């Protein structure tokens, strides 16, 4: 069913907010809620985010897990940095293909707050300061003007989550229409191969006949079209 994409700096409260959303929907609906993220996949963040190829592989794994979890009934929450707008666009294309609504929840904090929260974690759960600073520099903030970032809910440190708004976004909005390339194409007619063979033969015959009378540079009319090709 719907996809809720968490977004924010490292140590900005995304996991806490994701769990609040999960608790709300489990108490107020009969739907199952799945959280997919760095924590559930036991990602070694300081190793993964230090190297671009590893980070790219992890993003692919998270996206694949989201795709496996999405169905007509359940709610999926992607609890990760999701800091690259191109990646959020890929997720948008995924929900277009599966015909389900989505929204983005942006946990907005200052660099100082995120750094302080990171320092308060257990050592094995912390980002190194070098990794945290690098991720902050690379962060591409969501923008509600982009369809892949909309609807967007920006949550600051002391805010209460707008549960009603999030619920309306994922249950009352229509799913975005799929791209034409993702729609199932009608099966070819039963005489498709016959027609293809017929057209191919006509083109071949036109070329063979032209070889008898034409010289290099002459234009040959392609049967069934107004196009011409140079001999």
Structure description:
The protein is α/β, with parallel strands linked by helices. It is built from 8 helices and 7 strands; from the N terminus they run E-H-E-H-H-E-H-E-H-H-E-H-H-E-E. It has a 5-stranded parallel sheet, sandwiched between helices.
Structural key phrases:
single chain, 8 helices, 7 strands
**Helix and strand composition category:** alpha/beta
Chain-averaged pLDDT: 89
Q: How many strands in all?
A: 7
How big is the Rg? 26 Å
Biggest β-sheet, characterized? 5 strands, parallel
SSE topology sketch:
Layout: E1 3-8, H1 14-28, E2 33-37, H2 45-48, H3 52-69, E3 75-79, H4 85-98, E4 102-107, H5 111-119, H6 129-138, E5 152-155, H7 163-171, H8 192-213, E6 219-221, E7 228-230
Parallel strand pairs: 1-3, 1-4, 2-3, 4-5
Antiparallel strand pairs: 6-7
Condensed summary:
Helices cover 44% and strands 14% of the residues. By secondary structure, the protein is α/β, with parallel strands linked by helices. A hairpin with a 6-residue loop joins strand 6 (219-221) and strand 7 (228-230).
């Amino acid at each position: 069913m719907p996809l809720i994409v968490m977004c924010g700096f490292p140590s900005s409260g995304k996991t806490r907010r994701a769990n609040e959303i999960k608790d709300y929907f489990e108490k107020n609906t009969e739907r199952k809620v799945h959280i997919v993220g760095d924590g559930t996949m036991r990602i070694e963040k300081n190793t993964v985010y230090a190297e671009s190829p590893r980070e790219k592989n992890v993003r692919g794994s998270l996206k694949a897990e989201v795709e496996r979890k999405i169905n007509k009934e359940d709610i999926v929450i992607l609890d990760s940095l999701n800091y690259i707008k191109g990646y959020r666009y890929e997720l948008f294309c995924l929900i277009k293909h599966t015909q389900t609504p989505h929204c983005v929840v942006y946990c907005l904090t200052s660099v100082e707050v995120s750094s302080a929260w990171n320092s308060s974690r257990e050592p094995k759960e912390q980002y190194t300061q070098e990794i945290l600073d690098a991720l902050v520099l690379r962060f591409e903030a969501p923008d509600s003007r982009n369809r892949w970032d909309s609807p967007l809910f920006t949550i600051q440190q002391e805010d209460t989550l707008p549960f009603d708004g999030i619920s309306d976004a994922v249950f009352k909005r229509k799913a975005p229409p799929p791209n034409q390339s993702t729609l199932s194409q009608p099966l070819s007619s039963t005489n498709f191969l016959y027609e293809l063979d017929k057209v191919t033969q006509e083109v071949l015959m036109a070329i063979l006949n032209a070889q008898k009378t034409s010289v290099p540079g002459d234009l040959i009319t392609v049967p069934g079209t107004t196009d011409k090709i140079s001999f």
